[in-house]
């Protein structure tokens, strides 16, 4: 069989749709890292590949799907439950009742429905307090909150509907318990959210408001961000969670500055638990864009989990293809 290597990452086909495209993208990292969790300095390498498929029907309806191979692979927790001597279960992406890094959408005009490994309404509406990046995500310390909310409560297969108009985007989402027959189905995770973005003078400002609940558990959050033409950027984030075994309030702030190819970002976050304990952390990232998808990255993160401190750092190159 003749093997064909495509020089382009995009293939275009016409078969039953007005147009369709299949694209391949990827990221890779290399560098050195250090942490209190390691015996010493270590090498770091990582790679990920994403397949993206998009199309447009004759009536203007757009549709698409993507799969992240890194997310599709079994993690350690899933692998641990496979009995010794049995074959691996393979990716959850190819089972209809689970998700494994895949997302699928249909859209028409300002309306869009996403399903699979996607953000719920709460996460989609809020802006997380992080600017810049590093090869080991050093800014995602003990005080960091990525706004996941209650996403992933039942395996992460989420449906999110959105509608955008005049700078506003509204979201409604659900995640349903996928128990087997004969097992009581638990309360679904419901979410609503809205965000707004507009240009004011020499800056772009945004606001977000989100809410999620699952039975007696609920979380509400707000965020605000500003990005100025002079390169200064700031993000504020606050949330309140109730009904869990450990209720908490969280606040996060990030500040950044970009000048030409250089970006510097710092962030700080704090979890204030009702029991009286705190988790806090701060991080620093310095990025230099070398062009063509290559970025030099340095990062540092400091965490304090109820008085137990730890830090980590990284230095390396991030590549986008």
UniProtKB/TrEMBL annotation:
Enumerate the Pfam families for this protein.
Answer: Porin_4
- Signal peptide range equals 1-20
Keyword Hydrolase belongs to the record: no
Supply the InterPro entries for this chain.
Gram_neg_porin_domain, Porin_dom_sf
**Any keyword Transferase?**
no
The Porin domain extends over 7-304
Q: Which Gene3D superfamilies match?
A: Porin
Select a single GO molecular function from the record's annotations and give it.
Answer: porin activity
Please give the GO cellular component terms listed in this UniProt entry: membrane
Q: Which UniProt keywords apply?
A: Signal
This chain's protein is named Porin
Give the source species. Tropicibacter naphthalenivorans
């Amino acid at each position: 069989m003749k093997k064909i290597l495509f020089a382009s990452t995009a293939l275009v086909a016409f078969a039953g749709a007005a147009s369709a495209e299949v694209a391949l993208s990827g990221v890779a990292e290399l560098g050195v890292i250090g942490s209190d969790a390691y015996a010493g300095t270590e090498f770091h390498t990582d790679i990920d590949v994403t397949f993206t498929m998009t199309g447009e029907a004759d009536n203007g309806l757009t549709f698409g799907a993507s799969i992240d191979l890194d997310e599709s692979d079994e993690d350690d927790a899933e692998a641990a439950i496979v009995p010794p001597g049995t074959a691996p279960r393979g990716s959850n992406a190819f089972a209809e009742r689970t998700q494994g890094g895949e997302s699928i959408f249909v859209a028409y005009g300002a309306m869009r429905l996403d399903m699979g490994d996607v953000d719920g309404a709460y996460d989609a509406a809020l802006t997380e307090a992080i600017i810049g990046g590093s090869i080991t995500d050093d800014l995602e310390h003990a005080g960091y909150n990525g706004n996941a909310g209650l996403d992933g409560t039942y395996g992460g297969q989420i449906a999110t509907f959105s509608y955008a108009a005049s700078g506003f985007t509204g979201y409604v989402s659900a995640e349903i318990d996928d128990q087997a027959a004969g097992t009581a189905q638990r309360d679904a995770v419901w979410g609503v959210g809205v965000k707004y973005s507009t240009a004011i003078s020499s800056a772009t400002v945004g606001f977000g408001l989100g809410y999620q609940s699952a039975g007696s558990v609920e979380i509400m959050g707000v965020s605000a961000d500003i990005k100025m033409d002079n390169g200064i950027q700031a993000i504020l984030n606050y949330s309140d969670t109730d009904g869990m075994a450990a209720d908490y309030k969280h606040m996060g702030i990030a500040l950044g500055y970009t000048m030409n190819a250089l970006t510097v970002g710092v962030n700080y976050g704090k979890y204030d638990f009702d029991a009286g304990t705190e988790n806090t952390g701060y991080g620093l990232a310095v990025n230099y864009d070398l062009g063509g998808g290559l970025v030099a990255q340095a990062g540092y993160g400091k965490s304090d989990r109820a008085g137990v401190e730890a830090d980590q750092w990284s230095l390396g190159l991030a590549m986008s293809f």
